[in-house]
Target: Pyridoxamine 5'-phosphate oxidase family protein
Amino acid sequence: MARWEEFEGEAPELAAAVRRLLDAHRHKTIATLRRDGGPRISGIETEFRDGDLWFGSMWMARKAVDLLRDPRFALHSGSEDPPEGDPSTWSGDAKLSGRAVESGHPPAGGDERSHLFRADIDEVVWTRVGTPADHLLIDLWRAGEGLRRFKR
Model:
């Protein structure tokens, strides 16, 4: 597992692209695991701060309870549709997975409590359309394995 700044140090170009995609939209999608092991999809916002990727949750929301019980998660950046006529100009989408580490319960406007999680990252993927637009380009980084590139 790696903190964001460690991943960024190992794969700076990939980290920059993924950060652009995560910052492009306020709302992302996070997958957590329910008590029975089934997946749960929720909306979430993220923030980069102090070399880490952070996300929060309302106090005792289902996604927070999921993460407190089983910290594994997957996060998707969301993406625009590829431009008609030139899909190779599409910025692509980003996905990452890892474990959420709770970091206290900061106040969230007034006296309400909330959950704050730091992402420890196992895997990061950036998928986009290649040039010519007859294939996908996939950059994959895994903690302990480094960066690999695929053409499909």
User: Anything to note?
Assistant: The CA atoms of residues 88 and 133 lie 5 Å apart. The first helix runs from residue 4 to 10.
